[in-house]
Amino acid sequence: MSRSVLGYRIGGHHGPERRGAADSLAIDWRPDASRLEAGNPSLLGVAVLDNALARLGRLAPDEIEGHARALGGELIEGLLARGFPVITPEAPEERAGNVCFLAEDAAGLASRLAAQRVLVWGGEGRIRVSPHVHCDREDLERFFRALDRVDARPLGLARG
After folding, report:
1. What is the pLDDT confidence band of residue 151, given thresholds at 50, 70 and 90?
2. Cβ neighbours, 10 Å, residue 90
């Protein structure tokens, strides 16, 4: 059995023994620097990261930025057309890769969207959508279809 503590993988070599079923997560740490050994690295994670970096490395930064800003612009247009107050600046040079809008029950809306396999952040009365290099127009269409299906309401509008 191993345990992750602050991002480090803890294995049996970090301490001579665990305390047993009564306190199964407690570890008696070794008294020397050997307790800082990294444990087993995630070789699959390293391979995936290597592949992702190689793919991204072939893209020009200005093309990535242009793509993200174009998607953000389409996202803003679609949200405004649905009556959502967008709090992200419309001007491309004034925004980053996220678009935020105000919605009733933002956390609940984020959960309902997640159930539709659309991941956004929701809280504090707003939803944050992050279209970037890994997204395309089809992802935006899927987002809007899900948004329309889950009874999303702009913040402050009464149900009617």
Report:
1. confident
2. 13
Asked if pLDDT for residue 39 goes beyond 80, the answer is no
**pTM (predicted TM-score):** 0.67
Residue listed under structure tokens 């009733």: 104
Assigned token pair, 53: 């970096």
In contact, 125 and 103? CB cutoff 8 Å? yes
- All structural domains of the chain: 3-57 (no CATH), 61-149 (3.90.1150.10)
Other C-beta atoms closer than 10 Å to the C-beta of 12 total 12
DSSP labels, the chain: --EEETTEEE-GGGSS-B--GGGTT-B---SSGGGG---S--HHHHHHHHHHHHHHHTS-HHHHHHHHHHHHHHHHHHHHHTTPPB-S-SSGGG--S-EEEEBTTHHHHHHHHHHTT---EEETTEEEE---TT--HHHHHHHHHHHHHTT--BTTPPP-
